[in-house]
Recover the amino acids of this structure.
């Protein structure tokens, strides 16, 4: 407990970044979260709320601004919920992310000695996202708003140009804005559950230039589709125009039904030599430039020579599996979402990859079952779980299977550290760790880890 009370003003130095990009500093050992501050700032802050172990304060005055402050390139960066760190120097962002991984491994994992390879940043940390979802609504003056939600709310910040999305989005949004106004298309209103157009989803194949536009609608029909197609087709690379039906009262953006309007209901992209078919509902890594680097590291860590049996758990649409299949004898992919496994099988087929097999189910069910019933074997196991990490029962099966190497790809360093600790208390050794910046200007970080027996 701290001696601080609400409205107290104190001077602190900011030395860390919180998960929403806010600054974190300490006053007499007591942690304060302060919006609008940056690592390295010395600031006068006013306490707003105190809890047992930490509190919240607001910035009153910057006494010495941090040398890591930069002017964001995007004029709406501070309001928009899309980027949390644009006002922080990019090299500092990378350092912060690398430290976050290192700290989790030391504090949660208890690891003291391990090789941490330097974080892999982007050469050009802008225009990297291959998927964007723009909510559609109305501005206060009644005009059509197309943009992004403000941080932690559902008010839409009208946007003409997003600096982390594909460049072609600017043309798509401008074309659709004109169309919506010309034909009086009613934007969806969350409160009344009325109106038609909810979201605009765009996907771009970075290595093929193929473009998809999918309009998410609260209905099953869209007016003036011929004009819509005519206008959108003018955009270079346009390959797929479709509708997605979502009539639910929900925050989930996409519904399950796709109504193709023009072109194929998918686009194709490539990572390295492998082609992937992407439909509006497919999970696909959002930063293709960094994904290639991430998968190259995973492949390098797996150290395959053509004789190995590899399991890729949490395989999604088979992206890593097919990458590994190029160098392994046989790859088994396991994934919980049936549609993703359908995509994985198709992706194997279009690449003429016959040494990969995909199974639907929870990794923690499928792997133990296959192990006890069929006594399956693994030389290398790759896992890429969601934020909550792996179930302990899965880690137990991995330990019993005793692969030569384990490659862990993670989007959450805290659960990563927890799982590594469990594996390394038994038979494994943490060999190498490398972070990759998949989400520049956000606080997220991706990590690849190699463990060996
Ligand atoms: N490796 C893929 C996807 C990683 S995202 C890629 O690089 O593209 C994590 C994946 O785990 C998601 O596709 C999610 O659907 C899947 N998943 C979540 N829980 C799971 C579980 N218990 N067993 C298997 N897959 C699971």
């Amino acid at each position: 407990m701290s001696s601080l009370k609400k409205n107290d003003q104190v001077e602190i130095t900011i030395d860390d970044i919180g998960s929403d990009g806010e600054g974190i500093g300490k006053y007499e050992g007591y942690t304060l979260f302060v919006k609008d501050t940056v690592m390295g700032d010395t600031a006068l802050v006013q306490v707003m709320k105190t809890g047992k172990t930490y509190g919240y304060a607001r910035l009153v005055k910057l006494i010495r601004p941090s040398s890591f402050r930069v002017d964001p390139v995007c004029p709406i960066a501070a309001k928009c919920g899309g980027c949390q760190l644009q006002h922080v120097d990019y090299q500092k962002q990378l350092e912060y992310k690398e430290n976050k991984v290192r700290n989790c491994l030391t504090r949660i994992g208890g690891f003291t000695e391990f090789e941490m390879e330097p974080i892999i940043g982007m050469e050009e940390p802008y225009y990297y996202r291959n998927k964007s979802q723009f909510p559609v609504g109305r501005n206060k003056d009644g005009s059509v708003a197309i943009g992004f939600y403000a941080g932690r709310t559902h008010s839409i910040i009208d946007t003409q140009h997003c600096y982390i999305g594909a460049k072609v989005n600017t043309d798509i949004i401008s074309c659709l804005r004109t169309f919506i106004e010309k034909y009086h298309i009613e934007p969806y209103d969350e409160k009344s559950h009325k109106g038609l157009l909810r979201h605009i989803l765009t996907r771009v194949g970075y290595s093929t230039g193929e473009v998809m536009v999918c309009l998410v609608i609260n209905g099953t029909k869209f007016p003036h589709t011929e004009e819509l197609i005519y206008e959108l087709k003018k955009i270079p690379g346009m390959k797929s125009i479709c509708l997605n039906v979502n009539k639910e009262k929900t925050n989930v953006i996409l519904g399950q039904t796709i109504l193709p309007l023009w072109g194929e209901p998918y686009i194709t992209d490539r990572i390295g030599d492998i082609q992937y078919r992407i439909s509006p509902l497919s999970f696909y890594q959002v930063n293709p430039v960094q994904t290639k680097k991430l998968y190259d590291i995973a492949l390098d860590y797996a150290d395959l020579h053509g004789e190995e049996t590899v399991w890729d758990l949490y395989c999604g649409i088979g992206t890593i599996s097919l990458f590994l299949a190029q160098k392994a004898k046989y790859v088994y992919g396991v994934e919980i979402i049936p549609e993703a496994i359908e995509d994985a099988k198709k992706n194997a087929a279009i690449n003429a990859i016959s040494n990969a097999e995909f199974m639907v189910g929870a990794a923690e069910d499928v792997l133990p079952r296959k192990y006890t019933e069929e006594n399956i074997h693994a030389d290398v196991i790759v896992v890429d779980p969601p934020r909550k990490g792996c179930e302990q029962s899965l880690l137990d099966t991995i330990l019993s299977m005793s692969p030569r190497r384990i490659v862990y790809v993670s989007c959450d360093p805290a659960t990563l550290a927890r799982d590594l600790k469990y594996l390394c208390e038994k038979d494994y050794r943490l060999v190498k760790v490398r972070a990759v910046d998949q989400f520049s200007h956000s606080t997220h970080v991706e990590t690849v880890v190699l463990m060996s027996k």
